[in-house]
Write a structure and sequence with these properties.
With 123 residues, the chain is mainly α. It contains 5 helices and no strands. The chain has one domain. The longest helix has 31 residues. The two termini are 18 Å apart.
Length: 123
């Protein structure tokens, strides 16, 4: 399970760096990149870490709900701000990167949740 925590931590560290590169390339706006990096990266990671060390499912559910909210709101906000044409032509790479990070974090969280449930059922 340590490998899952390491992958999750690497994603949380790499995401702001990629978003800063996108910001300098004018692919994302600074508020969007900072919100994505902080609120939807650091906060779920905090809950994920607490859940991992305390072996508590509740914190994983909180992290999952934040990640699901991020996954749903990101395309809505991007489409509303940019419009379909600009979004599809210019910002699709940034969107796919955001969604890749979200989906990967959700999968890792579900794997850890499954391991916690299995370890509790064995006890």
């Amino acid at each position: 399970m340590n490998k899952n925590v390491l992958i999750f931590a690497i994603l949380v560290i790499i995401a702001p760096i990629i978003f800063l590169i996108y910001y300098h390339s004018n692919l994302v706006c600074l508020p969007g990149a900072s919100v994505q990096s902080f609120i939807f990266g650091l906060i779920p990671f905090t809950f994920f870490t607490i859940a991992y060390y305390k072996n508590a499912k509740v914190y994983l559910y909180i992290a999952l709900s934040l990640l699901f909210v991020e996954g749903v709101t990101t395309p809505i906000i991007m489409l509303k701000r940019l419009g379909w044409e600009k979004f599809y032509n210019d910002r699709l790479l940034a969107f796919l990167t955001f969604e890749f990070f979200i989906i990967t974090q959700i999968v890792i969280t579900l794997i850890v949740l499954e391991k916690i449930i299995i370890s509790r059922s064995n006890n």
